Amino acid sequence: MIILLTAFLVIIGIIFLFTSKTLSPIPYFPSNAKDMPYILKGLNLRNDQTIIDLGAGDGTIIIAAADEALKKNLNVEFVGSEINPILYLVLLIRKWLHPSRNRIHILFGDMFKRDFSPYLKLKHTTWFYYISPAFIPPVTAMIKKLVQKPKIVTYFYPIKEAKEKQLIQGINKTFVYEL
What we know:
Elements: H1 2-19, H2 36-43, E1 49-54, H3 60-71, E2 76-82, H4 85-97, E3 104-108, E4 124-129, H5 136-146, E5 151-155, E6 166-169, E7 173-178
Parallel strand pairs: 1-2, 1-4, 2-3, 4-5
Antiparallel strand pairs: 5-7, 6-7
Helix pairs in contact: 2-3
């Protein structure tokens, strides 16, 4: 009986973490694995690049991009920012298990309260996000305050107030912007 009660409380706790507007203001919906080649195409991995994934979830994008950079022997840094504590722990585990773990940086907390400037040292920076459409305008405005002419890649949801440079069609759409 104690085991069932403990399991029930753990499940309720996990549900709370994924539904709390404070601990997880953007619902977790993983990217479609079949779209990974299209997302990687949009990221356009190259030397001296930093990929910053805002709302990195379980790290699928960062890990796939790190695998690709490792395979191509590219100098790329990866930054994943996540507010959900469970997904943050998943990100940390995936980082620790990756051969390029020294190039992967995982940040915990609210992306709007984070200082990303220490990660903007390489020649090229690409911002990636797959977030709720309600958060796209404030996130885009935040990025535009940090850097001039940012390169942004979004998945599934476009930046409505901007014209994409490239539209990549997979199962879902990947949008590439240079604002």
